[in-house]
Amino acid sequence: MKTVQPSLFCFVFLLTLLNLGCKENKKESQTDMETENTPMESDHIVKSTFGEMPDGTTVDKYTLKNAMGMEVDVITYGGIITRWTAPDKNGKYDDVVLGFDDLKSYLDGNPYFGALIGRYGNRIAKGKFSLDGQTYTLATNDGENHLHGGLKGFDKVIWAATPKSADEGAILELTYTSVDGEEGYPGNLDVKVTYTLTGDNQLEVLYEAVTDKPTVVNLTQHSYFNLSGDFTQSVLDHELFLDADAYLPVDGGLIPTGELRPVSGTPFDFTTSKVMGKEIGADDEQLKLGKGYDHCWVLNEEESGFGLAASAFHPATGRVLEVYTDEPGIQFYSGNFLDGTLPAQKGGVYGQRAGFCLETQHYPDSPNQPSFPSVRLNPGETYKTKTTFRLTTK
Ligand code: GLA
């Protein structure tokens, strides 16, 4: 297998960043981070060992902290966020994302808890797409379809980590080179994901990538939130707002049909905040296909190109999660496939709907749906997109 040396990667990545504009279908993200280039540990970022892969590779854990008291644990396996504490209305910090205590549990079967997803977040029908007349066949891992990057997506690889200094929070850069042909995708893809914990309880996730052949890219973050902090409780009592007047109905394999369907008058209308469980059991064909909510919403256009896409509120604790993005879509997944077989971090098991995901992304199956915004990345372009998660209370 062809490999790319880290030094070469840095050189190519820097050159491309310096020279070439953003991928045309991505809106320019907000301000670039200003960081020092020296890897370091500080009070705001602490490195420890999380576990060891079967081949002996060490998996590190970085704990990002800010002055408010928020802590985010990120491991180098899958770039996974294993723990993320947030205050309730009384100032009590508690973990609000589903995860496991040890590496073995992640290796044994992780339903993408906390993981970085790539090369393609969500599904590609029958694991096939064409670019410039050539058909590519991807690994299929969701029935006949390709899901979340295939059999060994970015959630299952070891990322190189570089901690960086920040005045009020912490920054962790993760890099990974996905080689030409990996999981069937064309082109060597150099990927960088930067997690920035700010001083005011925001976690910014900046995704960047460059390729040496035309390819498709759609990266996302797959944290499962439960703002109650009690993972034995379902999330159906959380109130959800989605800034989306339409969503993408799907077929039996959860592939979009191509229709952009107005949410108005349907259980998919979250334009005014409502409890997640309010209509999840409604007699609705789409809810039956998803076994609940497992659909991509078409976000209303933000003039700035970056804005509030979603917010969730847990009334009993007062915790609020806001999601800001420059992406055109967001997958709201209500944890339908959790089935009580996985051990929960603080005791008990993860039951159905013990967590919800808000995955910012381009639409599923875009490589096969010409009417959807393009996910194509060409050599000389830089894929660049940002999503920010903000945790507050009210
Ligand atoms: C995504 C998918 C779901 C499911 C979860 C992981 O959100 O849309 O169908 O596969 O990931 O279990």
UniProtKB/TrEMBL annotation:
TM stretches of this protein: none
Subcellular location: Cytoplasm
Binding site for beta-D-galactose: N122, R123, H222, S223, Y224, D294
Subunit organization: Monomer.
Chief location category: cytoplasm
GO molecular function, one term: carbohydrate binding
Entry's EC annotation: 5.1.3.3
A Pfam family per the record: Aldose_epim
Keyword terms: Calcium, Carbohydrate metabolism, Cytoplasm, Isomerase, Phosphoprotein
GO biological process, alphabetically ordered: galactose catabolic process via UDP-galactose, Leloir pathway; glucose metabolic process
Alphabetized SUPFAM superfamilies for the sequence: Galactose mutarotase-like (SSF74650)
Record-annotated active site: H222 (proton donor), E359 (proton acceptor)
Official protein name in the record: Aldose 1-epimerase
Cofactor(s) in the UniProt record: Ca(2+)
Highest taxon of the lineage: Bacteria
Pathways involved: Carbohydrate metabolism; hexose metabolism
Similarity field: Belongs to the aldose epimerase family.
